[in-house]
Amino acid sequence: MPSSVLSPVLAVGAVLLVTYFFPKYICWRNRMVKLNAIPTMGNSGLFSSYISAQRYKDHALEIIQEGYCKYPGGAFKIPLLDRWDVIVSGEKMIDDIRKASPLDLSFIAAFSEDMQTDYTMGKVVRVNTYHVPVVRSPLTRALPARFHDLRDEVVASFADFVPAKESEWMKVPMLSTIMQIVSRTSNRYFVGLPLCMSFACHSSIPIDVKTKAGTRTTSRNLNITFTVDAVIGGTTLQRYPGFLKPIVSQFLTNVPASLARAEGHLGPLIRERLAKEKEHGTSDWPDKPNDLVTWLLEEVGERNENIVSDIVHRVLLVNFAAIHTTSMTFTNSIYYLAAYPQIAEPLREEVSAAIEELGWTKAAMSKMVKLDSFLKETQWLSGVNGVGMTRMALRDFTFSDGTVVPAGTIVAVASQALHYDGAYYEDPETFKPFRFSNLREQEGESLKHQMAAVDPAFVVFGGGRPMCPGRFFAVNELKALMGHVLLTYDVEFENNKGIPPPSWHGVAYSPNRSAEVMFRKRAV
Predict the structure, then answer these.
(1) CATH H-level, domain 116-384+422-456+460-521: superfamily
(2) Residue ranges for the binding site?
(3) Residue 439: how many other CB atoms lie within 10 Å
């Protein structure tokens, strides 16, 4: 190339280097200076950190526990393949996160990063989170009036999926069955009858699509499939740089297909509601269903050309939250009930007394103090993740001990290590089903130790302003599910097997996916 041509090319390259890459390098360097001030669990070198990141995938709990003991009440960082995460512990630092403004530490940004929500659930659910106040307010407030729907679907779902007899034991594959039951029960409450014909069908309403499992499974499986596809899709997308993610999401994940199927099922229902509004000239038309679609339409207000797709995305996101956590917690509770059958009778007596007094109502659920304790204890011991209260620093954040977490960093609490810390509860690793109900009997403690209450040592539901808005619905649904099991079945493990080992991938937890539990219908 002639020197007369080469010189301008080099000049342009130099300008690009100075104006684009150099500022990015300076920003990265400043960020790393702040991160380097935080101690590392594992290797911190540019290349050696990848070795520690690989080890973290299989030994995350051990590494976090080591850091928790080595830096009590402090912070340490963990190398991942694509970033550094900061893990904290101790009441002061947990309280710092709890009190932090979402403009400083954002749950939404952290969730979006981990789940890659812009591609798995739609950018719209990150930009405008109006579904959160819907879950926090109308969805929760409707529980007393809509509890009969929840109860009716619990009965119908178990009759379909666990048709056990008094004369013999029935083996039930636990996690897969529970996901079906939780999906159907939740969606009976979310979209009701007759809408659940096309989204979460009732046992008495057939759907015209058949699978190997039989009829009436398409919409139910749709929610579960979307939940699984979203998790797998998020994990897949994390491996690719930002400019490739739109392409990867379309061709290497199942999320687009799940979204299209969901809109095919739920879209006509939303359009029917919108047509009713036009027909009556108001959003408050006669006999309007009291369900999630209605609450979302009321909250969003504006009716634009994308409203159908937008509402579908929100319903799927609420389903994701409901199915994922509730299924894991309920599966674990069944495992503990089967492993410790002696606790069934005191729980059964409490449930029977509450139902006899108040019927199957939300008020009756509030009377089930021992059951609340049992469910919290199983969640305490098993957890749903190795870390909790996960946030992303949107700008540099300084903890009360002076630790500075630079903008763009994920920060979380060492929740599993916290739950097993004897400084908070006696014998934390020993199963004590009535640990929390006994504590509630002490003066002034009647509300403090409820499963859904704020507890600095129990961070499964998070903390602060982003604390799980659906936890009250989830806890009442869990009580309705477990109460039905206690009064309807005997459960045990074949040959008195203990609780099956869970699976961990990094800090992501799952109950044993292949374990079976024996069910037998109780003689009335």
Answers:
(1) Cytochrome P450 (1.10.630.10)
(2) 468
(3) 14
